[in-house]
Amino acid sequence: xxxxxxxxxxxxxxxxxxxxxxxxxxxxxxxxxxxxxxxxxxxxxxxxxxxxxxxxxxxxxxxxxxxxxxxxxxxxxxxxxxxxxxxxxxxxxxxxxxxxxxxxxxxxxxxxxxxxxxxxxxxxxxxxxxxxxxxxxxxxxxxxxxxxxxxxxxxxxxxxxxxxxxxxxxxxxxxxxxxxxxxxxxxxxxxxxxxxxxxxxxxxxxxxxxxxxxxxxxxxxxxxxxxxxxxxxxxxxxxxxxxxxxxxxxxxxxxxxxxxxxxxxxxxxxxxxxxxxxxxxxxxxxxxxxxxxxxxxxxxxxxxxxxxxxxxxxxxxxxxxxxxxxxxxxxxxxxxxxxxxxxxxxxxxxxxxxxxxxxxxxxxxxxxxxxxxxxxxxxxxxxxxxxxxxxxxxxxxxxxxxxxxxxxxxxxxxxxxxxxxxxxxxxxxxxxxxxxxxxxxxxxxxxxxxxxxxxxxxxxxxxxxxxxxxxxxxxxxxxxxxxxxxxxxxxxxxxxxxxxxxxxxxxxxxxxxxxxxxxxxxxxxxxxxxxxxxxxxxxx
Length: 540
Prior knowledge:
The protein has 540 residues and is of the alpha/beta class. The protein has three domains: 9-254, 2-enoyl-CoA Hydratase, Chain A, domain 1; 277-444 and 494-523, 2-enoyl-CoA Hydratase, Chain A, domain 1 (Alpha-Beta Complex); 449-492, no CATH class. 38% of the residues lie in helices and 18% in strands. It is built from 20 helices and 20 strands. It has helices at residues 9-24, 30-38, 44-51, 107-123, 152-165, 183-186, 205-212, 218-222, 224-230, 241-254, 277-281, 292-296, 354-369, 387-391, 394-407, 422-427, 451-468, 475-492, 494-499, 512-523; strands at 59-60, 79-86, 89-96, 127-133, 169-178, 190-194, 199-201, 236-238, 306-307, 316-323, 326-333, 337-338, 347-348, 351-352, 374-380, 382-383, 412-421, 437-440, 445-447, 505-506. The strands form four sheets. Strands 1, 2, 3, 4, 5, 6, 7 and 8 form an eight-stranded mixed β-sheet that branches. Strands 9, 10, 11, 15, 17, 18, 19 and 20 form an eight-stranded mixed β-sheet that branches. A two-stranded antiparallel sheet has the order 12-13. The protein is globular, with a radius of gyration of 25 Å. Mean pLDDT is 92; it is low at 1-6.
């Protein structure tokens, strides 16, 4: 348990997440870690910690992926993927966790590696692979081997990075690296191996004996000395894991660094409010209103948002701000009621109306022209519906919003506060539109609609008939509706989304600002258009 004291919704969910996070970071457990140490190796997380700059903030990507599958026996899908700094520059790290099934690949392992590669490609930052894997997890080979986004996609991305994007790739074989998995280091720029503990080959000694009848030990077949002195496949040989990590840090430090930004970056200024204030700002009930401006002041640089069209379509906040000294265009949903046009009814916060869609589209296009990155702060329940909305042309305005967001070439960061629902989620840079990073507070809720709305949509006609007849729903009918609500509640939870890779990470209030700054700095490594999972050298 943490020392977070209070029963507020955000505090409770943060506490639950921190406990889950700690559990998942144990990997296969202390016994498996001890076995790794006995082999003369470090665990994946020990390697990553040693590789990253001491004291710097890092953000693990996809920690919760698959946590609720495989009876809990594949924490983090057996691979650690991290965004952090090495020798002062932003890098992506992929490290197989050999405490879990000897680092074998589950289907979700592939998903995480591909996401890490996409971050590196899109932002043109180095990617480091710490390889220690027995290869495909054979009982799940059907979800690993075939398909457009199967294991082959990893090697496709390797090739694109190497040939076209010039993204530095460094592979350290620090344990087993077998079969098709050997192409991952082979398609990298540099390969390091560790004496006595690393092996790289298309087949291990047992497979070779079965296939050819040849008897040969793994070290002679594909050990560090073999691939450095005989085959010439590897480029560096190190005595142990620590020396290997130190060599990687040197290699990263020697890489040329291009200034990829045209932005005017100033000194970071601490926020006007503390992260702790977030607990008091967000209400117990996720449907209740709160002050979005006050929330923004807990992680944006002091001064908050200089609002654009502040008096128009107030349900949507658009404006310029600074994050760690870097300029951002903020787009945030304002919850609660706001004034509409004179003579028109008040507007519901968290709902996108025709005017707010048009206002936001215009603001996005301005930011794109000025090369200003975009920060979407989601608490959106969807677009307005009804006769008045349809007659105002909301479909056309919504399409313009979506198009402006989709085609903006600047970096796009997303932070979900509460709701990420309906087509409003799409317009606010949902995952399908390839934002650079998607984070969520533990309070995030992602889905088409809330449970009560789903019940109304599914059972409304029957309920109306019962009401007209003066009858009440039966116990069985009530139980059926309760089951729908329970399913929606479970599937709306941020942890459910994170487990399926729909979020990069759940961030706690004390980490929101640091994680957003790290993500934005990573994005600014290149001025290449931030469109799609990767963009080949841009020509217009």
